[in-house]
Design a protein that fits this description.
single chain; 48% helix
Length: 191
């Protein structure tokens, strides 16, 4: 269980983030359940249905749709979060994934953990006006996960794909509910 003190320590870089075997199992089980339900034709918001005003509309699976969910919401402006703020946001979102209810793929959870451990800090503008939670801020983090956006790495601001490459990481293809799971949270407010 992650405490506020743990988030602060991860944010400041005085503690490393990890995912326990129990958390990893929860994430994997949640993702497997999501895939089973989607394959069975269950209406799942943002997976088998549209988003927002078209939530009642069935949609076909599209390999690029979850990526578009992230990139289409990376619309922040204004003050850029500092590295500690970004690390706190990532830690808070990762803690939410660890509960095992998001349906996110293990690959995306590992990608967020790698951003923390490799100290790749997405450039996150802190002002936006979207309808739910911290969509824009988290979309800027998710953009780097997929190799887009921008990130700071070793004191330099780079494109997301270049920052990942320099850190020995690769962009993650998003599946099922990954994009929605990356952006739907209040991790920026909590972190």
């Amino acid at each position: 269980r992650l405490t506020a003190g743990d988030v602060a320590a991860i944010a400041r870089g005085s503690a490393e983030a990890t995912l326990t075997p129990v958390a990893r199992r929860r994430i994997a089980d949640s993702h497997a359940t999501l895939l089973e339900q989607a394959a069975a034709g269950t209406a799942i918001y943002g997976v088998t249905t549209g988003l927002g005003a078209v939530a009642d509309t069935a949609v076909a699976d599209d390999a690029d749709r979850q990526r578009r969910v992230v990139l289409g919401r990376a619309v922040g402006v204004g003050r850029i979060a500092d590295d500690a703020e970004v690390r706190a946001m990532i830690a808070a979102r990762l803690a939410g994934f660890a509960v095992g209810c998001s349906g996110v793929s293990p690959a995306v959870a590992d990608a967020l953990l790698s951003l923390l451990t490799q100290r790749v800090h997405p450039v996150v503008p802190m002002t936006a006006s979207l309808g739910e939670a911290d969509l824009a801020a988290l979309a800027h983090i998710g953009s780097v996960v997929v190799g887009a956006g921008a990130a700071r790495y070793q004191g330099e601001t780079l494109s997301g794909d270049a920052a990942l490459a320099r850190a020995g990481l690769a962009p993650v293809p998003l599946v099922a509910k990954d994009g929605l799971a990356l952006v739907s949270s209040n991790a920026a407010s909590v972190g």
